[in-house]
Amino acid sequence: xxxxxxxxxxxxxxxxxxxxxxxxxxxxxxTREIAEANQHICPVCLGHPGVLPVLNRESxxxxxxxxxxxxxxxxxxxxFARKNYFYPDLPKGYQITQYQTPLLAGGRxxxxxxxxxxxxxxxxxxxxxxxxxxxxxxxxxxxxxxxxAGIPLLEIVTRPMFHSPAEAVAFLExxxxxxxxxxxxxxxxxxxxxxxxxxxxxRPRGSDELRTKTEIKNLNSYATLMKALSYxxxxxxxxWESGSxxxxxxxxxxxxxxxxxxxxxxxxxxxxxxxxEPDLPPLVVEEAELAEARRRTEAAGHVIQxxxxxxxxxxxxxxxxxxxxxQGGLREEDARLLSAExxxxxxxxxxxxxxxxxxxxxxxxxxxxxxxxxGERGKITARQxxxxxxxxxxxxxxxxxxxxxxxxxxxxxKSVTEAIAELGFDTKVAEQExxxxxxxxxxxxxxxxxxxxxxxxxxxxxLVGGVMKQTHGNADPRAAxxxxxxxxxx
Amino acid sequence: xKELLRLPAHRVQALIEGGEVDARELFLLQLRFARFxxxxxxSFLTLADEEPPHASEPQVELAALRGxxxxxxxxxxxxxxxxxxxxxxxxxxxxxxxxxxxxxxxxVRLLKxxxxxxxxxxxxxxFGMGSSTEYSGYFPTHNPWDLSxxxxxxxxxxxxxxxxxxxxxxxxxxxGGSVRQPxxxxxxxxxxxxxxxxxxxxxxxxxSSLDHIGITAREVTDVAxxxxxxxxxxxxxxxxxxxxxxxxxxxLDKRGELKSAKIGVVKELMDPELMDSExxxxxxxxxxILGSAGVDVVRVSLPEVRHxxxxxxxxxxxxxxxxxxxxxGIRYGLGFPADTSMDLQKQYLRVRVxxxxxxxxxxxxxxxxxxxxxxxxxxxxQARQLRRLVAASVADLFSKVxxxxxxxxxxxxxxxxERMDDPxxxxxxxxxxxxxNLANVPAISLPAGLSRSNLPVGIQLMAPSGEDARLLAMGxxxxxxxxxxxxxPPLVAKKLDExxx
Lengths: 490, 501
Known about the structure:
The complex is a heterodimer.
Chain A: E1 4-15, H1 57-70, E2 73-74, E3 77-78, E4 80-84, E5 94-98, E6 104-105, E7 108-113, E8 116-129, E9 133-136, E10 142-145, E11 152-158, H2 165-181, E12 194-204, E13 214-217, H3 222-241, E14 249-254, E15 259-262, H4 265-268, E16 275-276, E17 283-284, H5 287-300, E18 302-306, E19 309-313, H6 318-328, H7 332-340, H8 342-355, H9 358-373, H10 382-393, H11 399-409, H12 416-422, H13 431-444, H14 446-453, H15 460-470, H16 477-487
Parallel strand pairs in A: 13-14
Antiparallel strand pairs in A: 1-11, 1-12, 2-6, 3-17, 4-5, 4-16, 6-8, 7-8, 8-11, 9-10, 12-13, 14-15, 18-19
Helix pairs in contact in A: 1-5, 6-7, 8-9, 8-10, 10-11, 13-15, 13-16, 15-16
Chain B: H1 9-17, H2 23-41, E1 44-47, H3 60-66, E2 75-79, H4 106-113, E3 117-122, H5 156-163, E4 169-173, H6 180-186, E5 189-192, E6 213-217, H7 220-230, H8 248-252, E7 262-266, H9 277-292, E8 296-300, H10 305-323, H11 344-355, H12 358-371, H13 380-397, E9 403-407, H14 423-427, H15 434-439, E10 443-450, E11 456-462, H16 468-482, H17 490-498
Parallel strand pairs in B: 2-3, 2-4, 7-8, 7-9
Antiparallel strand pairs in B: 1-3, 4-6, 5-6, 5-10, 9-11, 10-11
């Protein structure tokens, strides 16, 4: 069925990180377990009679920071609207959102996919409020938790422009990182503060028409997003090939049946009767707020010292990954991992500055540092890691010794020299001793010596290995090789 | 002592401040007389207990902040559409039966902080939707001047409670004339400030862009004293825009400066086709009084008058359809035991069909219709456009005159039941008063005398947006010139005679 291609657009909702909710002073805290439900509620977020919303300006700053990052057109005056519908999770019977005039219009976000940097085009992004959370208890009872009601949301909508589920996910991962690095959102799908509703259509490959799309709701992980989109793309192809037409529908992913199923018409054919929210004046963005958003966006970017020069990259991974691959010769995967973690990246970049050894620094950071830190900072300095890399490069220690040194230095504050001494790796095998050990090894390996005599000089390395073993790794391998060669008169 | 109940608030407050009257005793007296006359008029949905939990000395902070005279230690009534902590608040609707707000409206909080006493919660047309108080979800209120007649609405209970000596001042709400029209029909003063001058926080929403808290009182000075308490900027209302330093009482002293003011009489609102001839006659009398006081009276034209009612009823209904969506019986108010076997839509229907009255349902349906895809363009958007046109025309008139004049109500208080069968006849009551809400200008209704049948008539004055203090001064000027102070309805005077304090 390769004559079809998918066209996917994404509508994402990120909970904005603020102390209080979008329109009241309650703490914006997600419930983790049901005992914590309905702790952060007040007359405003419960939609009591007579209450009024007051906008949380911090959510505006957060949204503006994204706008600056992706180059959106920022509406200096935007309007809140009411989206009217009935559902038990909607306390007021309407959601306050932005409709005709969103805060952010357009914008572009680069993401890495299939070995190249691609550009996603954003349609819009606007502020709104979250709904309450509904728990369906095993008893059949329905439990409403209004802690979530009124938590600030940023809705981000892309153009329909991704052509595979994997590409959509690559973009989403990049968006998630940018939101996190800007401090806008925790953006964790699993924790429910980052949600995605894709829309998808298929068309004959090479065509640029846009056929009828379907929307998929209730996806709570990247895995289900991939599965649902893959299923839906295939389903639509079959529909078109059978000569019928795909119907415009809202679907949900049925995990048990592993298929998409239409939602009830009542839930989808809504006329939201949007109109301007009379309780909120137009949102006018102040110059000072724009400046603050620019400052935040700048601060969230990556700054690294590279070959004695300061290099700056925007938040996210795309730009930096491209740089590290091209300029540093790193593998794409390693470059992306480093770009995604400011801590690892900082240690890496500083270590490179001290040692000039790009790959070694990347390997140490990704293989030894990263699995150990888990969010805690500063357990090893670039100075320590640089000394370690240099000691290893100078042959002062072997590779397994180096790992032991790392483990000792990490978190202890000890210098590399101290650690090497403490582990006894600095007790250099004395010259006399080395002469004796080499003689012993030659005597113990007549077969190898015979090979060497026949001209197979590379076999000397096997003897070096023997020396290292006898000395428990404390010999300098280069000195050992020289001594062996001297005794064998090579 | 019971004769004190006839006084305007500012005079009784002077007696309290002079140590001649004890505020708590006055409150108890007020409460007992309110109960005594209540079977006749039915002004209240809830009357306070004899020990008001909030009664307190005025907070020094508020008085100091004002640095001027405020309403203090006076028994006031609060329309039941304004939230009062620990005192049932139903908006006159069955759907909120048993609802006790967990918070005070900002205006109520300020009233309490100023040391005033709440007598009770006054009756109204359900959610403020009506012009006679007959659409209350509980019972109608009767006009103290003639018990067979309506007090007007929707703040009918507020007006009747002030007229029937059940409270000195009332907080009402005015979305399309709801404070002014009943004030006119009950012979008291009714004032709607500029939008945002009194916080809407705690005012149960009917049509948010038109909703105001308003004031019912016996004299203009009482309105000014009340404004000095409640007209404050409020961080809980994003549309609040009260000037923080205004002194409405002090402004009354400058009324002498208004003697050369120009008043424009809106021709279209004096049309004998629309207005009762007795109403027009009393309005002309009032204009003569103003003229002899030196005010320049001219006739002006506002051709948009014929669009006022359609524009108002479309906008108000549209916003109402959204504002009333929250009444689903889930979190508060009328509810039913959970029935998980029942379809969600049926549960909504069960609550909303039994909880809302006919007029509310009518407006929700109308509002839903005018906002629906395919119809919004023809109705809701057109009505918004009309509102802008009306506001522009009114602003234009205010470039030529200082105040606008009209009757408050086109006709006298009508008989209970008379207009219930035809909603458009009921809507016609509001033709003069909706103008101020649509154009967002302050407006006041003042007593203009009695008809031959002994029913009150009111005149309406409007001022440019934000000129609330000047409007009150003009009202005081008229009040003084007309020498038509507050009169106790004969029936109430008789009850007062019978009352044993």
